[in-house]
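=== RUN LOG ===
request id: a7f3
mode: sequence -> structure
chains: 1
length: 205
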Amino acid sequence: MKSVEIHTENPNPRTINQAVKVLENGGLLIYPTDTVYGIGCNVYNKKALEHLYRLKGKSKFDPVSLVVLNIQQASRYARISNFAYRILRHCLPGPYTFILPATREIPKLMLSRRKEVGIRIPDCNVSKALLEALNYPLVNTSVSMSAEELLNDPVEIEDRYYSEVSMFLNAGWLPNPIESTIVSLVNDEVEVLREGKGDINRLLE
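=== RESULT ===
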């Protein structure tokens, strides 16, 4: 694993370009978000997807979220009703994952049995810079192996994933690391599946 320090507010463009090359070549990338460190890969690279699923012990039916640049990009991968659009526009960018019906653009490997996909738009300049350079989403999952274990120490993260991940964008200890709030908007109904960093009261405003 190549570990490179990065500033969350002003990420170095050269470092971002290095990370983009890693992703385009099918590697896995650890990077900071507005919640916790995530592990991302190229949504269109099947080998990278299989590697990520194997690393996190997931089956093809376990949901994994996409990190996208904006709602317009999200609409290519998820069906967004007017009801869902209003909520996404109000809450994003921010620490939420919204579960929506998937479009046919989603690789079959990612699909859950219900054919849904999680959508994330982090309020984070690092992920924004990555997505602007890539022009496609990242498949994303947390570096933590379980809900009870929250990895935030860069040294522990390096030790855990040293041989499995190609590059680590190291922003140090992230402030207030709490996983995203997961909200289902399927069938135009709001269902909070996991309460996390995102304030659920904002969903009702």
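=== NOTES ===
Strands lie at 2-5, 29-31, 38-42, 65-67, 96-101, 116-120, 138-142, 167-170, 181-184, 191-194.
The CA atoms of residues 167 and 183 lie 30 Å apart.
=== END ===
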